[in-house]
Automatic annotation (TrEMBL), chain A:
InterPro entries, per the entry: DNA_methylase_N6_adenine_CS, Euk-Arch_PrmC-MTase, SAM-dependent_MTases_sf
GO molecular function annotation: nucleic acid binding; protein methyltransferase activity; S-adenosylmethionine-dependent methyltransferase activity
GO cellular component terms, semicolon-separated: eRF1 methyltransferase complex; nucleus
Family matches, as Gene3D superfamilies: Vaccinia Virus protein VP39 (3.40.50.150)
Signal peptide: none
Protein name per UniProt: Uncharacterized protein
TrEMBL record, chain B:
Transmembrane annotation, as ranges: none
Signal peptide positions on this chain: none
Gene3D superfamilies reported for this sequence: 2.20.25.10
InterPro entries with a match to the protein in the record: Trm112, Trm112-like
Full protein name: Trm112p-domain-containing protein
GO function terms (MF aspect): protein heterodimerization activity
SUPFAM superfamilies: Trm112p-like
Pfam families: Trm112p
Subunit details: Interacts with TRM9.
Coiled coil (residue ranges): none
Length: 237, 123
């Protein structure tokens, strides 16, 4: 058993401003724990969590990898979230490097092909587009769940950054401007809700970007049916 | 936290700012040193993912002049120690990072860089 991160330093006020780890968070922790052996074997160098919120997930990953030295980059649009990410890391003696930004934007051009572990528990709740885009521009707690159409508006934007389509590679090889995150052995763990249309996400990632995927866990939490999908460049068993 | 390892991976992403948008230049920084465990292999394996000149200049901007201008072919333990210190132990707590191309300043406060852009600045 890998201990769940200590979050006792977060105040009620913090958790009014930042996503309080819930079933979706814990499902992602369980998926990572299930993969712990393989993750350690891979000896990842660069881990990147998008939307790190309280910092609970990256801290847990740091605990799994233990003495394996790795860089834990964490992004969130909510500046209270990056503040909590930093303090949760400290509280658990894991050094996390949070950056307040949207998705991976300022990191994208420099991180091409170097991310060994990418994590995203996105705002996945279906809302209208207006609610999602105002949550994004307010960069507040509503950005933790408001996902727009099919709950996919924010996730969709990240998916485009994970890999470049083979078509784009073809046109862009000359000037090397294509931006993609995953290293050759990279793994990308994504939290999704049934309503996000998991089969469609998986088939598009395969067709557009050649990424294989597997459902690592699925679990019902109240009214939500949640999935953890793992994407890799080559199919893993 | 802005450590030089992170700084080396950040570029300006203002709409249309695509050349000379890396590295960002530190301004008015306040620095804190925090000891970290030395792992020579990690540093060695990380180097190919980093930009040497950007690192040397950034280290200078935060007061560390220990790194050679040119990346040596051989990495001895002493150099790896210096790199470890520069990359992993210097924390920039306050200040800003400024783009040399478009002059956008990204503030750093309480150890966290704010790289958010306003709607009209997003590409
Ligand atoms: C469901 S919460 C997950 C938080 C944490 N990772 C966890 O599992 O408990 C989604 C997080 O994504 C962040 N977020 C939403 N839109 C984002 C964006 N465009 N870029 C980065 N983070 C974003 C939210 O602020 C929130 O912290
Ligand atoms: Zn710029």
């Amino acid at each position: 058993m890998i201990p769940t991160p200590d979050l006792s330093h977060l105040t009620r006020h913090d958790l009014e401003q930042v996503y309080d780890p819930a079933e979706d968070t814990f499902l992602l922790l369980d998926a990572l724990e299930q993969e712990a052996g393989e993750l350690r074997k891979e000896r990842p160098m660069i881990c990147l969590e998008v939307g790190s919120g309280s910092g609970c997930v990256s801290t847990f990953l740091g605990t799994i990898l233990g003495p394996i030295p790795s860089l834990y980059l964490c992004t969130d649009i909510n500046q209270h979230a990056t503040r909590c990410t930093l303090s949760t890391g400290k509280q658990n003696k894991i050094t996390l490097d949070p950056v307040t930004c949207s998705l991976t934007r300022p990191l994208l051009s420099r991180l091409h092909h170097t991310v060994d572990i990418l994590l995203f528990n996105p705002p996945y709740v279906p809302t209208d587009t207006y609610e999602a885009s105002s949550a994004q521009s307010n960069a507040d707690i509503a950005g933790s769940w408001a996902g727009g159409t099919d709950g996919m508006e924010v996730t969709e934007r990240l998916l485009q950054d994970v890999e470049v389509s083979s078509f784009t590679v073809f046109w862009d090889t000359v000037n090397d401007v294509y931006q993609h995150l995953l290293s050759p052995r990279g793994r990308f763990y994504l939290v999704a809700l049934k309503q996000n249309n998991v089969p469609s996400i998986r088939s598009r990632m395969l067709e557009d970007f050649g990424l294989s995927s597997q459902i690592i866990i699925e679990r019902r939490a109240g009214r939500e049916l949640l999935f953890i999908i793992r994407f890799t460049r080559t199919a893993l068993s | 936290m802005v450590r030089l390892i992170t700084h080396n991976l950040l570029a300006c992403h203002v709409k249309g700012c695509t050349t000379n948008n890396f590295p960002l230049v530190f301004q008015d920084v306040q620095v804190e040193l925090q000891e970290a465990e030395f792992n020579p292999d990690f540093i060695r394996n990380m180097l190919p993912r980093l930009e040497w000149t950007a690192l040397v200049n950034a280290a200078k901007q935060v007061g560390d002049t220990s790194l050679p201008l040119e990346q040596p072919d051989m990495m001895d333990d002493e150099l790896l120690q210096k790199l470890h210190h520069a990359l992993m132990e210097i924390h920039i707590i306050e200040g800003a990072m400024v783009c040399q191309n478009c002059r956008h300043a990204y503030p750093i406060s309480n150890g966290i860089p704010n790289m958010l852009l306003a709607e009209h600045e997003i590409g």
